[in-house]
Amino acid sequence: MSDTAAVTMTFHPRPQAGQPRPWAFPAPERGSLPNGLTVLRCHRPGQQVVAVEINLTAPLDAEPAGLDGVATIMARALSEGTDKHTAEEFAAELERCGATLDAHADHAGVRVSLEVPVSRLPRAVGLLAEALRAPAFADSEVDRLVRNRLDEIPHELANPQRRAAKELYRRLFPADLRMSRPRQGTEETVARIDSAAVRAFYEAHVRPAGATAVIVGDLTGVDLDAVLADTLGAWTGTAGRPVEVPPVTADDTGRVVIVDRPGAVQTQLLIGRIGPDRHDTVWAAQVLGTYCLGGTLTSRLDKVLREEKGYTYGVRAFGQVLRSTADGRGASMLAISGSVDTPNTGPALDDLWKVLRTLAEGGLTDAERDVAVQNLVGVAPLKFETAAAVAGTLADQVEQQLPDDYQAQLYAQLAATGTVEATTAVVKAFPVDRLVTVLVGDAAQIEEPVRALGIGEVTVVGN
Question: 241 pLDDT exceeds 80?
Answer without folding.
Answer: no
